[in-house]
């Protein structure tokens, strides 16, 4: 059997060159395709600019679109000639082109007239040694070809996003992540009418979200401006980005209300606005975001309540993060109707009233944070729930909340951490240990809190066993 497989593998290996050449020869035009001298020279000069003078690029790669292909560079065939279509610089794969400390842009880059995709990863890294800026000219020469432009993890890439990028009208993806770019988001980006992805995460961009960005970019699927220093309000025109699937403006300094126009985003699955200065409560129109799966609004001085919102309309919601948003009032039962919910964080708010026991019945729920509120009454979740959730359930710092202990709960150490046992139960306890609320160690000693207060529960269980046995024997 092994021999057979080995023979087959050998056969395949022997056949491979044949298959390859067959494929190439069958397209005789491709095999004989030359590269224009100007295109080849431009490529060499451009790469030399990035890798530094220590390399002899032309010598190492005499046939860059043929038998000496360069890792990260792709070519295609136009009117009988090879042209460069993709340039990816940076340590992605083993033989990738990596940048020298003095890496620089060479103007010949803009002579590569069929360039479709250009990306730089971890290339311009030394901000102290030789900071680099994105060239502010010539991009218009790539207007008919360039579809994606990416700069990722270039800590030495400083300066503003040049407004001339707005002339790259064929662009469908502009990704500038984790660089050191400053200044405002240029209004000119609104001219990129075919853009599907605009991601400017993790820079030091300031100023407002350009209000006119929205109506023009009707094809936009992903808008991510998170982790910057953007200020001002959310423009109501965001509601005109009707194709949007992901909207992430988290970790900025945005203020004002959530505009009701956001409710027009019927295909939105992610709304992440956490860690801003947004206020004015949960805008009612957000209940029209019927496709929403993740709603993350934590760490905003939002205020308002949960009860005036029709949660049932967000049937696909899996993550709801409203921690530290200043909301008050009670938890409406309708939240327990969000059957797909996996993560619910309502901690560090001013919520009052009882905790709906139905929450424990949500089939997928695996994190529930209720700590730091003013809930009252009895926490009526089954022991199995505390056991399943472990540390992903939190209810401490609710001074008027207590939990209903049955014998097993405390004996097996699955009591909710930082919550006292209800008083009427403690009275019948033989060992009435009193866990200190808000003390970081109280859960570790909960196994010592043996309680005999659970007789009714044990009795009913016994009763069920008897009934079950009777049923089984009669069947
Ligand atoms: C909700 O999720 C289901 C399953 O993932 C999907 O088929 C349905 O289209 C979603 N509903 C909306 C309104 O997006
Ligand atoms: C809980 O209520 C008391 C008074 O009723 C109030 O002083 C306190 O700030 C409230 N705590 C929270 C977290 O809302
Ligand atoms: C409860 O809140 C206080 C501040 O109000 C905080 O110091 C303490 O750590 C909290 N307890 C827990 C268990 O988080
Ligand atoms: C937990 O129990 C141990 C041993 O009984 C004791 O030394 C420790 O002080 C207790 N810790 C708390 C927080 O009660």
TrEMBL record:
GO terms for biological process: detection of stimulus; response to other organism. Residues 1-26 form the signal peptide. It comes from the Eukaryota. One of its GO terms (cellular component) is plasma membrane. It is a single-pass type I membrane protein. The keyword Ribosomal protein does not apply. It is found in: Cell membrane. Its main location: membrane. Pfam families: LRR_1, LRR_8. Keywords: Cell membrane, Glycoprotein, Leucine-rich repeat, Membrane, Receptor, Repeat, Signal, Transmembrane, Transmembrane helix. PANTHER family: OS05G0588300 PROTEIN (PTHR48010), PROTEIN TOO MANY MOUTHS (PTHR48010:SF5). This is Piriformospora indica-insensitive protein 2.
């Amino acid at each position: 059997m092994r021999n057979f497989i080995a023979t087959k593998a050998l056969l395949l290996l022997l056949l491979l060159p044949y298959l390859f050449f067959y494929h190439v020869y069958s397209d005789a035009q491709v095999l004989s395709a030359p590269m224009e001298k100007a295109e080849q020279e431009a490529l060499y000069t451009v790469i030399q600019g990035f890798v530094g003078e220590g390399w002899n690029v032309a010598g190492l790669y005499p046939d860059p679109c043929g038998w000496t292909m360069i890792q990260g560079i792709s070519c295609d065939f136009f009117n009988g000639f090879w042209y460069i279509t993709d340039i990816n610089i940076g340590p992605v794969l083993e033989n990738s082109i990596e940048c020298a400390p003095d890496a620089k842009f060479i103007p010949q880059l803009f002579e590569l007239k069929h360039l479709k995709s250009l990306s730089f990863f971890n290339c311009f890294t030394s901000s102290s040694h030789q900071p680099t800026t994105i060239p502010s000219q010539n991009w218009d020469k790539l207007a008919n070809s360039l579809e994606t432009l990416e700069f990722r993890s270039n800590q030495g890439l400083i300066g503003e996003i040049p407004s001339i990028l707005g002339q790259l009208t064929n662009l469908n993806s502009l990704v500038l992540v984790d660089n050191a770019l400053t200044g405002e988001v240029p209004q000119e980006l609104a001219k990129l009418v075919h853009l599907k992805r605009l991601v400017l995460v993790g820079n030091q961009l300031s100023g407002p979200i350009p209000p006119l960005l929205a109506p023009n970019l009707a094809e936009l699927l992903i808008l991510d401006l998170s982790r910057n220093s953007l200020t001002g309000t959310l423009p109501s025109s965001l509601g005109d980005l009707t194709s949007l699937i992901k909207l992430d403006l988290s970790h900025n300094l945005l203020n004002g209300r959530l505009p009701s126009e956001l409710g027009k985003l019927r295909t939105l699955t992610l709304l992440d606005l956490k860690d801003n200065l947004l206020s004015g409560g949960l805008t009612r129109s957000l209940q029209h975001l019927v496709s929403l799966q993740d709603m993350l609004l934590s760490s905003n001085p939002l205020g308002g309540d949960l009860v005036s919102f029709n949660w049932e309309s967000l049937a696909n919601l899996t993550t709801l993060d409203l921690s530290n948003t200043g909301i008050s009032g009670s938890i409406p039962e309708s939240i327990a109707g969000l059957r797909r919910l996996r993560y619910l964080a309502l901690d560090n708010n001013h919520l009052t009233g009882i905790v709906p026991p139905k929450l424990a019945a949500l089939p997928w729920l695996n994190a529930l944070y209720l700590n730091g509120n003013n809930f009252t009454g009895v926490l009526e979740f089954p022991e199995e729930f505390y056991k399943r959730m472990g540390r992903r359930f939190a209810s401490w710092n609710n001074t008027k909340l207590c939990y209903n202990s049955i014998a097993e709960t405390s004996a097996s150490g699955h009591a909710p951490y930082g919550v006292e046992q209800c008083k009427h139960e403690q009275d019948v306890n033989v060992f009435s240990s009193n866990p200190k609320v808000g003390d970081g160690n109280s859960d570790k000693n909960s196994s010592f809190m043996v309680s005999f207060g659970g007789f009714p529960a044990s009795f009913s269980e016994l009763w069920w066993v008897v009934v079950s046995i009777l049923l089984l024997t009669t069947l």
